[in-house]
Amino acid sequence: MDSNIIHETDEIGRILNVSLDRPVHLMVDYALNYAAMGIPVFPVHGVRAYQGGYICDCRQGVDCKSAGKHPVTRNGHKDASTDPVVISRWWAKPPISNIGIPTGSSSKLFVLDVDGPTGEEALEDLHAYYRARQGDHFDCGTETLQSTTGRGRHLYFNYREDRPFHGSASEIGSGLDIRADGNYVVAPPSLHRSGRRYSLVGASTPVLDPPDWLMYEILQRETGIFGHTEQPLRRSIGCNRGEAIMDGTRNIDLFKYGCGLVNSHPPDEVARRITEINAGQCVPPKDEKELGRS
């Protein structure tokens, strides 16, 4: 794929910006637009109206636990294509499928999936931590192309094949998932089971390179540094030294500290240590319910 198509223009946002008034039957046109930009796509089950809400259009219907999000094709994201003939055939007949995009090396895109309020809080904690340490050099990364989801948002970034990595779920923070090699995302203007469409935020926004702090978080996880000892985590050092952990970074400090213990300590011991640090070092301490969510 020509990197100039995506990496140096606003072509994705310009072509695919979605209005809720656009007819759903044009979904194939959106799929073909992605393909024309070198982004492979594949069909994902859509949703249909049912008793005042929406359910999956697959055979499981109301019992489907992944409504509007799981692949139609046998091999899922591995079947993704840029061939207009194949794509037109996939979207030729009802029910109208949602659009899936494989992340990682095949699309040259990866996604930070921010899942609702929990993800937003974790992301803000990360921002606060790195902003305090990088000052004017801090780049939050939110200037890149984004789309709304059912209750959160997707942040799209350029994926570099010389720094490959796989996806992860809540490893850099609660409610923050990375979609990369081996993963996919549901793309605009697909219909979420909530009845809301996945929609791009800003038609002229380009896809940018990820900020350094995000790659640092991802690659430490990918290389297995986290979880092997108590003190490879730069944020857990403050916990170990007895330093104060201030509001704004408490969630991420405690989360990373716990990650450094899980492989070498039983769960009860991990919980005990985190509770002690919360009571003795967090300013102010998190309440028990809030601590449990961290």
Task: Give the topology.
Blueprint: H1 3-7, H2 11-16, H3 27-36, E1 42-44, E2 47-50, E3 53-56, H4 84-90, E4 98-102, E5 109-114, H5 116-134, E6 146-148, E7 153-158, E8 168-169, E9 176-179, E10 184-187, E11 200-201, H6 212-222, H7 236-241, E12 245-246, H8 250-259, H9 267-281, E13 282-283, H10 288-293
Parallel strand pairs: 12-13
Antiparallel strand pairs: 1-4, 2-3, 4-10, 5-7, 5-9, 6-7, 6-11, 8-9
Helix pairs in contact: 3-4, 8-9
Task: Throw out a few tags for this protein.
16% strand, single chain, six-stranded antiparallel β-sheet, alpha+beta, 13 strands, 294 residues
Describe the global form: globular
The fraction of residues in strands falls at: 15-25%
Spatially, the strands of the biggest sheet line up as: 8-9-5-7-6-11
Mean pLDDT level? 82
Structural class: alpha+beta
Biggest beta sheet attributes: 6 strands, antiparallel
Please tell me the total number of domains. 2
Contiguous low-pLDDT stretches (5 residues minimum) are: 1-9, 18-22, 225-238
Give your account of this protein's structure:
The chain has 294 residues and is an alpha+beta fold. It folds into two domains: 220 residues, no CATH class; 58 residues. 32% of the residues lie in helices and 16% in strands. The strands form four sheets. A six-stranded antiparallel beta sheet has the order 8-9-5-7-6-11. The protein has a three-stranded antiparallel beta sheet with strand order 1-4-10, covered by helices on one side. α3 packs antiparallel against α4 and α8 packs antiparallel against α9.
